[in-house]
Amino acid sequence: MRLLSNNNIFASLLLVSLGIFSLSAQPTVTDTSTITGDELKDMMANEEVLKEWITKVQTPGVIVEGGKMIFSDEAQKLAQDAAYRAEVYKNEYTIADIREPIAKFEIQKAFWRMIHLYPNDKETILKFMYAYDKVVSADKLVTASFYTYAFFDPEITTITDGKPNVHRPDLFEEYLRTTKEIVTYIAALREQENSAK
What pTM value is reported for the model? Predict the structure, then answer.
């Protein structure tokens, strides 16, 4: 696969899809403008919300630390709520399955679905994932998505007493290999973009 060239359209789509900063909520600044205290507070609050969101989407849902597993809120919900799990995981994924989680700012869920789609449309999925790199490290996002959703995928695990039991380690390994390939390409794209500057 050839490496993709920088495409600012994807970065623009990312910012629109995130919708974190509302144009109407942000003051217009010109050479003669002043920003009121309230406007400054709003801008700083949005920045804090963005920083918290970035940290959250880069954090894996399942972390193994000191011989025990630590589960995020999303991972706990996946482990404990069978109806939610059935809603999240599908037998087959399409591009349309990515729209809903993006609209709800469930970016890890969207990236998990993109990991599924990647083998069939590598270039398109990689472009879309890399567009997020302007806001959040796409490689960390892909990895966090894998470690949030792979453990609870019904194709891979069964849930017994709220704990995942891997019954298809081969599928787990396949998705891990795909995740690592995506991360490698993202790093190469980032390096290519940085060397072009």
Answer: 0.75
